[in-house]
């Protein structure tokens, strides 16, 4: 009598695990970087989310992002602390916005997502929108849950502007990586 | 190795959609700046109280020097570029002078011996009073 049960894993499961591991590594490395302003991070881990979104679609991107936030916080030791809730709310907000833009811009094809039209949002726009949504979601939670003082609202425009710039940078990085991956002989 | 990994080809670094989105982002950013930063300055006012009564209500951006006569003598108050402070006071411990510049809504400096105080008005006061 076998008491163990094997769980059948699909190819997608393995991909999610590998990509989430990559995102978690970047997430942790990034958390060690000093930041000039609290709440401002380069958001390099989000490059993985954007990359997964552009290559494997939204569902996979949701998995990778949520796993990154969960496992990343457990490894750093901030799980269920305010930092975790800020990070999670930002991630959820950005993944929702990405979902909408993705539905508008990309269509499924056997070879992966394809642009719907020339009006589709590219990596730059996705990075920008994701960063702005992340900052807004995070700020909304920070304001309503942790520091409901009107004083911190004056910080919001500055943080949102900085986040936008960093979002564009992460979008451009994503495009560079995408182009490199496409020209990688292993993937041909 | 699985046959072919999905590929997405994006010819240029910015698409037409990105330009539209960038426009939206700039609109949102300016909206946010206007919403949260617009009353950072103009329209701000300061109230001067003497003997518990409102003595004057002044524009914080109209620079001026005031000499207010209280119980002990003349308190010297300066309004400069959206800030206000006590410069000199006839009181013994000069707590009001040491309070320094005030610029945020609700901030106040009080000279109890001379019975003069200044408080910056705010549109939506969160507290009736603050005790230390």
Textual characterization of the structure:
- The complex is a heterodimer of chains A (188) and B (132).
- Chain A has helices at residues 11-31, 45-56, 58-76, 82-105, 123-146, 150-153, 156-183; strands spanning 106-107, 114-115.
- With 188 residues, chain A is mostly helical.
- In chain A, helix 1 crosses helix 3, helix 2 (45-56) runs antiparallel to helix 3 and helix 4 (82-105) runs antiparallel to helix 5.
- Chain A has seven helices and two strands.
- The model of chain B is unreliable at 1-6 (pLDDT under 50).
- Chain B has helices spanning 16-37, 95-98; strands at residues 45-50, 53-59, 64-69, 74-80, 83-88, 108-111, 116-120.
- Chain B has a four-stranded antiparallel sheet with strand order 2-1-7-6.
- Chain B is built from two helices and seven strands.
- Chain B has a domain at 45-120: mini-chromosome maintenance (MCM) complex, domain 2 (Sandwich).
- The A-B interface holds A 11, 54-56, 101, 105-106, 111-115, 118-125, 128-129, 132, 149-151, 153-154, 156-157, 160-161, 164, 172, 175, 178-179, 181-182, 186-188 and B 1-2, 4-10, 12-18, 20-22, 25, 28-29, 32-33, 36-37, 40, 104, 124, 126.
């Amino acid at each position: 009598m076998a008491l163990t049960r094997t769980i059948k894993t699909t190819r997608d499961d393995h991909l999610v695990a590998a990509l989430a591991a990559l995102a978690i590594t970047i997430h942790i490395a990034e958390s060690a970087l000093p930041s000039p302003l609290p709440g401002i991070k380069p958001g390099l881990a989000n490059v993985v989310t954007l990359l997964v979104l552009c290559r494997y679609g939204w569902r996979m991107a949701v998995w990778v992002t949520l796993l990154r936030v969960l496992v990343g916080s457990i490894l750093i030791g901030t799980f269920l602390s305010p930092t975790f809730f800020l990070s999670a709310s930002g991630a959820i907000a950005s993944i929702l916005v990405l979902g909408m833009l993705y539905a508008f811009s990309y269509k499924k094809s056997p070879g992966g997502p394809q642009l719907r039209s020339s009006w589709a949002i590219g990596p730059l726009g996705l990075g920008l929108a994701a960063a702005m949504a992340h900052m807004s979601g995070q700020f909304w939670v920070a304001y309503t849950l942790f520091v409901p003082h009107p004083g911190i609202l004056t910080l919001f425009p500055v943080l949102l502007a900085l986040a936008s710039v960093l979002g564009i940078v992460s979008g451009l990085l994503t495009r560079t990586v995408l182009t490199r991956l496409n020209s990688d002989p292993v993937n041909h | 190795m699985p046959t072919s990994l999905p590929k997405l080809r994006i010819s240029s670094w910015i698409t037409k959609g990105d330009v539209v989105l960038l426009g939206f982002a700039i609109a949102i950013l300016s909206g946010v700046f206007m919403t949260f930063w617009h009353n950072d300055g103009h329209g701000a006012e300061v109230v001067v109280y003497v003997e518990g009564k409102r003595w004057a209500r002044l524009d914080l951006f109209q620079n001026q020097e005031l000499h207010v006569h209280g119980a002990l003598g003349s308190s010297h108050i300066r309004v400069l570029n959206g800030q206000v402070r006590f410069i000199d006071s006839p009181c013994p411990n000069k707590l009001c002078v040491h309070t320094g510049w005030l610029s945020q809504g609700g901030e106040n400096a009080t000279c109890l011996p001379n019975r003069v105080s200044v408080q910056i008005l705010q549109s939506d006061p969160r507290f009736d009073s603050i005790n230390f």
